[in-house]
Design goal:
Number of helices of chain A: 15
Shape of chain A: globular
Strand content of chain B: under 5%
Strand order of the largest sheet of chain A: 2-1-3-6-7
Distance between the termini of chain B: 15 Å
Radius of gyration of chain A: 21 Å
Number of helices of chain B: 22
Number of strands of chain A: 7
Strand content of chain A: 5-15%
Largest sheet of chain B: 2 strands, antiparallel
Mean pLDDT of chain B: 88
Helix content of chain B: over 70%
Order of helices and strands of chain B: HHHHHHHHHHHHHEEHHHHHHHHH
Low-confidence stretches of chain B: none
Mean pLDDT of chain A: 85
Largest sheet of chain A: 5 strands, parallel
Oligomer: heterodimer
Largest interface: A-B, 21 and 22 residues
Shape of chain B: globular
Low-confidence stretches of chain A: none
Distance between the termini of chain A: 82 Å
Number of strands of chain B: 2
Order of helices and strands of chain A: HHEHHEHEHHHEEHHEHHEHHH
Structural class of chain A: alpha/beta
Strand order of the largest sheet of chain B: 1-2
Chain lengths: 321, 498
């Protein structure tokens, strides 16, 4: 039995260099992007690489938006500029409140904003893995990102563990400042973190793919974010961007989710605006088939309508007052 | 408890190490029973109580049958019927359409659902009762040994459906630890996990997408999903069996093999001697043969309605056997059709033997044995795939849709001009999904090549003869493939539902 245990132990020990060798091979070699359980998000289509390079310039903005793809595809700096407002979109694909907390922690004192605006529709989505991999792949090494990576890895999918380790290993072969942003014809990066959706897809098909769903109303990370902003005495506004009617109808606990967010926000003394309320949706004249790219993302036409409405009803008025 | 989980690895490791620290065979049996109950605990308290009651009841019934000087036919039939009724009640109560919504509500309220592995352990118990009744196996006197035979955790959830004559004697002696046995067991476990998470679950991604709403697809996606499913279910079930067999080897127990490269079969008859062997032999020995014998006694004439009696007997016994095989798998009509389809294949192949020989002779296929073999294998595979459509579809209507739309719009294959066209052909959204389909095809090819080589030369024996670094390298590659290519989202085995 002792000999058998020894053999097994040697086999496992030998597996470690084999694993690292494969990780390097799949990370630095031509097989990059071909291995299902090693995801390479460096310079990915969320454009986090260029966004966070730009964010490192420490400029001052009127508004800084934080959230998922609904943020970096939802607030066009060119529209805001027309009203004399400077903005920056700080977000990553599928970003959950867990990721937002670490991102906010990193940038809260580095970016100067008159107002931070946090988008909440994806705050309770289930897995923070995709956003963690994206942020670790595209942001310079920092204590916050390392902490987030470690917490994501703990007890998670092998794919997440591989991808996060690969993201670190990739830095050895290609330092972040030499990494290249991948471009595709569907997405165009606009300075200040915005990604314009260039191509129209069959929205009807995409809407038809939306099945019944439920939002996970788990608020612990959300509370941590609110606590962080309160501690740092930073102004914060919470918003829910317009979602397609189909998505709202299919989310069985949509009302409870909004109520839970409103309650928490009020408890910390911050404001919350839901742009899905009937009157604002009607005023914006948003249509599922015309203004949406899919169930939860506006297309360029929808973004312009929404941004104009948001500025005119909440910022220009206040500025003029 | 799922085999592909940290809990199972922990349970298996602890039970394995403690097992060999126990020297007494009696205490080893107690240990196996305790570990098996712990494994089953995840299913809930009620299933454990039910399992205990069923095991105890059958133990006493078999002892009574064995102790009687003359066969107690009435008591034996009652005992078998009791088992069948327990299985039927838990398997079909929620689904009987005549009871409708009331049954479903009442069933849910009372927590009536099929306990894990029940179809397998009830069939093992029925087989045991028949063997004892026929005096082919002695009635086991030791409850701990009998419980180990039924509950042994590597086989509890999905079989193999073991025979008393093969497994019970293995629990009689306390085998010393065998290093070669244990390392063979571990290798088989690694191979099983590879088949499950790398092959079956990767194929499952596309299969679930298409068969989840088959009416959204036609042509190529339906063909590819059906082809994938044939290999998914094989890799899934045979992967489970390998883990079970390997797990049992760690304890010095040899379970019956359940698969022998079924997709290399040259006929449906041969397929059923290679696919789910423990079930097919069970059905043959305890259902098909008894029905055939009973019919041959009751049908004395040489011909009935102008057809030879032996053909009638084969038709009826095969039809009934595959009907039972179908409903054993599930309640829906699609499972009945799946079973009956195999029955039709077998009856047709038996009745058409002479005609097929004539065709072969006319085509001179005997002169080209390899071509003949290849054609037979491919034809058999296509027939099996047709049956799998009924097995995988969620309803008979869906299965009908799939069959009728399998070949529609195939001309689009010749009009491909861009990657976008290929994405549309397979009905996937992004290139990464297309890459997954491509990897799935490669994995199937890898499996076929391996099976083809294995058919000629046992690879495990070949590897054992190589220097240690060669077979270690091979198994390292398999473990790394699991890490880099495995799908860990859908770890539930398909046959857990049966």
């Amino acid at each position: 039995m002792q000999h058998f245990i020894k053999k097994i132990s040697v086999f496992i020990i030998l597996l470690i260099p084999g694993y690292l060798f494969c990780l390097i091979l799949f990370t630095a070699g031509p097989l990059n992007n071909w291995i299902p359980n090693v995801r390479n998000f460096t310079g990915g289509y969320g454009h986090s690489l260029v966004r966070f390079r730009e964010a490192a310039d420490y400029q001052e903005y009127d508004l800084v938006f934080i959230g998922s793809s609904r943020v970096y595809r939802g607030f066009d700096p060119r529209v805001f500029e027309r009203y004399g407002l400077s903005i920056f979109n700080l977000g990553s694909p599928a970003q959950t409140s867990f990721n937002t907390y670490y991102l906010a922690k990193k940038y809260i004192d580095r970016i100067h904003a008159s107002l931070f605006v946090m988008e909440v529709s994806s705050l309770a989505d289930n897995s923070p893995d995709e956003s963690s991999i994206d942020l670790i792949s595209n942001l310079p090494f920092s204590r916050e990102m390392f902490e987030m990576g470690m917490k994501t890895i703990r007890g998670k999918q092998i794919r997440t563990v591989n991808s996060i380790l690969a993201a670190y290993l990739r830095r050895i072969f290609t330092p972040l400042n030499k990494a290249r942003q991948r471009y595709d014809p569907e997405n165009k990066y606009i300075s200040r973190g915005y990604v314009e959706t260039c191509r129209m897809r069959n929205v009807r098909d995409r809407l038809n793919m939306i099945g019944p769903r439920q939002k996970n109303i788990e608020m612990s990370s959300f509370r941590e974010i609110l606590e962080l902003f309160r501690e740092h005495k930073k102004p914060l506004l919470l918003i829910l961007v317009p979602l397609s009617k189909k998505l709202k109808e299919n989310t069985s606990n949509y009302k409870e989710f909004v109520e839970a967010v409103r309650k928490e926000t009020r408890r910390y003394g911050y404001s919350f605006i839901d742009f899905n309320e009937k009157w604002s949706f009607k005023k914006m004249e948003l249509d599922d088939l015309v203004d949406f790219y899919d169930g939860s993302h506006l297309n360029q036409k929808g973004v312009e309508k929404f941004n104009r409405f948001m500025i005119e009803s909440h910022f220009v008025k206040k500025a003029s007052q | 408890m799922n085999f592909i989980s940290f809990e199972f690895i922990l349970l298996a490791s602890i039970s394995f190490f403690i097992y060999y620290f126990i020297s007494s065979s009696k205490w080893r049996l107690y240990w196996i029973v305790a570990c098996s109950l712990l494994f089953y605990l995840k299913a809930g308290i009620f299933p454990i109580l039910l399992l205990t009651a069923v095991v105890l009841g059958n133990f006493l019934a078999a002892r009574f049958i064995a102790a009687a000087p003359r066969p107690k036919k009435g008591f034996f039939i009652a005992a078998v019927l009791a088992n069948v009724l327990v299985l039927a009640f838990f398997k079909y109560f929620n689904s009987v359409s005549s009871l409708g919504a009331f049954a479903t509500q009442a069933g849910n309220a009372a927590g009536i659902s099929l306990p894990l592995g029940m179809s397998f352990y009830i069939f093992t118990l029925i087989g045991y009762l028949v063997d004892v009744y026929r005096r082919q196996a002695p009635g086991e006197q030791n409850l701990a040994r009998f419980s180990s035979f039924i509950l042994f955790f590597p086989k509890l959830a999905q079989g193999p459906i073991e025979r008393a004559g093969r497994l019970l004697p293995q629990f009689q002696r306390a085998e010393p630890f065998s290093e070669s046995g244990a390392s063979d067991g571990l290798k088989q476990i690694v191979w099983g996990i590879f088949k499950k998470v790398v092959i079956a679950d990767r194929l499952g991604v596309y299969v679930n997408q298409v068969y989840g709403s088959p009416r959204d697809y036609s042509g190529i996606p339906l063909l590819v999903a059906t082809f994938f499913f044939a290999f998914q279910i094989y890799a899934d079930f045979s992967g489970y069996t390998d883990i079970a067999l390997g797990g049992a080897r760690l304890f010095g127990i040899r379970l019956s093999p359940n698969f022998r490269r079924p997709y290399l079969s040259r006929s449906i008859k041969e397929f059923w001697t290679r696919w789910h062997i423990s079930l097919s032999t069970w059905l043959r020995d305890y259902l098909h043969m008894p029905i055939a014998f009973a019919l041959s006694r009751r049908m004395p004439g040489a011909k009935h309605l102008g057809v030879q009696t032996e053909k009638w007997i084969y038709l009826i016994s095969t039809g009934l056997t595959f009907f039972v095989c179908g409903i054993w798998h599930g309640v829906g009509w699609n499972f009945v059709v799946w079973g009956m389809l195999f029955g039709v294949y077998l009856v047709f192949s038996s009745w058409s033997r002479k005609a097929r020989k004539k065709v072969n002779r006319a085509l001179h296929l005997r002169r080209l044995p390899n071509v003949h073999r290849l054609v037979s294998v491919l034809f058999t595979f296509c027939l099996v795939c047709l049956a799998w459509i009924f097995f995988r579809a969620q309803s008979l209507g869906d299965a009908g849709y799939v069959v009728s739309h399998l070949f529609s719009g195939l001309d689009r294959v010749f009009q491909l001009q861009s990657v976008e066209d290929i994405l549309m052909l397979f009905r996937v959204k992004v290139k990464r999904e297309l890459l997954e389909i491509f990897i799935s095809f490669l994995l199937i090819l890898f499996l076929i090549i391996l099976e083809w080589i294995q058919e000629r030369k046992p690879l495990r024996l070949f590897l054992r003869k190589q220097p240690i670094w060669v077979h270690w390298a091979v198994y390292q590659v398999f473990v790394l493939a699991i890490i880099f290519f495995g799908v860990f989202k859908q770890t539930s085995f398909i046959y857990f539902n049966f």
